[in-house]
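dude i think i finally got it to work??
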Amino acid sequence: MMNPNRVLAIARKETIQIRRDPLSLALAFLMPVMLLFIFGYAITVDVDRLTTVVYDRDASSLSREIVRGLEASGYFTVVAYVKDPKLIDRALDEGSARVALSIPEDFSRYARTGGEPQIQVIVDGSDSNTATIALGYLTGALELAARHAGLASLEPAIDIRPRVWYNPELKSRNFIVPGLIAVIMAIIAALLTSLTIAREWERGTMEQIISTPVKPAELVVGKMVPYFAIGIIDTVMSIVIVVALFGVPLKGSVFLLLFISSLFLFGGLSLGILISIVTKSQLAASQAAVISSYLPALLLSGFMFSIMNMPVPLQAITYLVPARYFVSAIKGIFLKANTAGMLLTEMGLLALFGVIVFTVAVKRFKKRVA
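look at this
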């Protein structure tokens, strides 16, 4: 059984060290805010205001109306009207335009006589994701513009009225920014605690701790307590910023979100302690913490990239990444108002990961000098 007094003594000692270390304080409280601002504003998959050049050989009222309708969609911004097709190549090569529209000279004549008017669309495919989305926007915008211009008078055979649930405006920020909390907590938890045991070894104070009656479990828990409190404060700060600044709706329970965050923090802190025990070097521990927490949380959690689109071997590896379950839970609480009953699997696996890593960390710590 652990002695609460010894645990509190270790926690008090670690708290004093944190207060005396400005770098640790900055890392603990400023880094999450900075990462939220940087990632929240920089990462987006929304495609709008695509720079467009127009080569209008028809120069008719109909062709101009088509171009105006394209601009009115809000996804395209016409930056130039060119008179030479070679200027289209130059604009796309230089990157001053992402989309080019070429309207033939007989466009309006074919349209008025019941023919099949054609418009050539050229899209910069160097960014395949943007090009794919741009082509979809172009198809819809041109069809709408043609309908307003009187070129599509026939009603479609099937009247499709799509309805998007949970994120009706299809804002990428609504599903990216909540996942940022998982990425930030992963790196903060592992990075902060990865330095604790290693710092004691490097400063030569571990021998004094070993000479005390403190048990390995008491030392690990005592080291984790102040960082757990910091993690909860960072989580609350992140939630407030996500909701108040980025405008992401929080439809679920705040208390459920904090509870699941606590489970994730426990696992992340335990991982950091384990890394610190194994490496006994602050430099090696910090590097190992980034590799084992930040990169998997960023790339293999479903935060940015759909797990279903990954190769099968990588999909299998994602089951070992705790951030996968936290990202799924946090997005469900934010956007779908998921309840605890719906997230039992995620909570159980996060708790299991924390218990396993904590147990391994306690077993790995030996009260002896090598």
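The chain has two domains: 9-43+171-364, 50-148.
im so relieved honestly
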